[in-house]
Inverse folding.
């Protein structure tokens, strides 16, 4: 059986690995991507904090995606490979002044090891005046380490990686039996999907090895310590913007807000500016599609993870492979 996966970000790579760990392990798998080294996944801080608006087709399916994904990363965290795979545990606070709903998360309680209200004296840990807070412990996946680690695992099992833009899914027929479409924002054009909306983000990578805790404040302010003493400072959410230009004014505003929240950051050197486009879809699309134009080739979509694709990718990967298996069962009955 010949399978093409389109997309070399976190969704495409984890889906390919899931295929290799399923009954498709003997399939001939090729990953096509316009780029393997410059994806939205490379920009993400990689914190496992799924937003309240994140949504699959049903509540139960979405909950399973989140749980499967957490367990996937947590198993790597507990293994000797955690450091080279870029997975670690991190704790942090979310603070808000205006509204208690801002500090509540519907997916994390009962999943992560620690999730509780912040105590009043913990509001004093940072600058600003806060009325509400949550403390939690979760996972972090550093994609600049995790994507190369996953790529190596795929190559060891014979998966081929080809840098190539796919202009139409039809062009893969009849060479492939099954296509899994993990193109993130690229699906807007590949599938003419107008429900996929770009939400631009901008972050600064700052050397601040003394910061060991995450902090979130209002106005999309966040400080997330990653590997090698580098913190991700954010952020920005610009709806319907696909610009990858670094905006100096947004950088200045991010620094001002983050430095106010954690004043010691003022001494942190900015080493990189990054922008990325979150592929937002009200319902993340993980479903099969059969169309006469594909001929006998089957297609499963897996895109639209918005601002939560790093943390949820292994969960939707399992679900995409489930649909691929359903296709196999239905064709074997013909
Ligand atoms: C500033 C910022 C911070 C973020 N922080 C977090 C976070 O802390 N936690 C979290 O979980 N998520 C976070 N995210 C969201 C996360 O980055 C995305 O949800 C995730 O990267 C989406 O992964 P993906 O594989 O679908 O897309 P991408 O990483 O964009 O990969 C898409 C792939 O498809 C390829 N492609 C597209 N079109 C075609 C085509 N026609 N032919 C061939 N190849 C094609 C691309 O080249 C690429 O390889 C953040 C995003 C931003 C912008």
């Amino acid at each position: 059986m010949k399978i093409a996966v389109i997309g070399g970000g976190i969704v495409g790579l984890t889906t390919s690995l899931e295929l290799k760990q399923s009954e498709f392990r003997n399939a001939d798998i090729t990953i096509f991507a316009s780029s393997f080294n410059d994806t939205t996944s490379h920009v993400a801080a990689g914190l496992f904090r799924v937003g309240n608006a994140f949504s699959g087709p049903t509540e139960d399916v979405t909950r399973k995606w989140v749980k499967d994904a957490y367990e996937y990363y947590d198993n790597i965290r507990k293994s000797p490979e955690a450091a080279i795979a870029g997975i670690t545990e991190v704790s942090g606070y979310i603070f808000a002044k205006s509204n208690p709903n801002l500090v509540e998360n519907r997916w994390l309680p009962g999943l992560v090891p620690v999730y509780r209200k912040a105590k009043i004296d913990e509001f004093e840990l940072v600058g600003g005046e806060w009325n509400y807070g949550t403390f939690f412990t979760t996972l972090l996946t550093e994609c600049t380490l995790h994507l190369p680690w996953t790529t190596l695992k795929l190559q060891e099992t014979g998966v081929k990686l080809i840098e190539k833009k796919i202009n139409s899914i039809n062009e893969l027929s009849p060479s492939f039996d099954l296509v899994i479409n993990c193109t993130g924002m690229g699906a807007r054009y590949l599938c003419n999907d107008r429900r996929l909306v770009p939400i631009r983000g901008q972050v600064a990578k700052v050397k601040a090895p003394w910061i060991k805790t995450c902090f979130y404040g209002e106005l999309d302010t966040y400080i997330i310590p990653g590997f090698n003493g580098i913190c991700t400072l954010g952020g920005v959410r610009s709806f319907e913007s696909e610009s990858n230009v670094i905006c100096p004014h947004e950088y200045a505003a991010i620094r001002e807000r983050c430095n106010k929240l954690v004043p010691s950051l003022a001494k942190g050197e900015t080493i990189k500016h990054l922008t990325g486009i979150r592929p937002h879809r009200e319902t993340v699309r993980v479903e099969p599609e059969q169309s006469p134009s594909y001929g006998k080739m089957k297609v499963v979509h897996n895109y639209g993870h918005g601002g939560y694709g790093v943390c949820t990718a292994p969960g939707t990967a399992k679900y995409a492979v489930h649909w691929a298996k359903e296709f196999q069962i239905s064709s074997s009955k013909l």
About this structure: The CA atoms of residues 85 and 135 lie 26 Å apart.
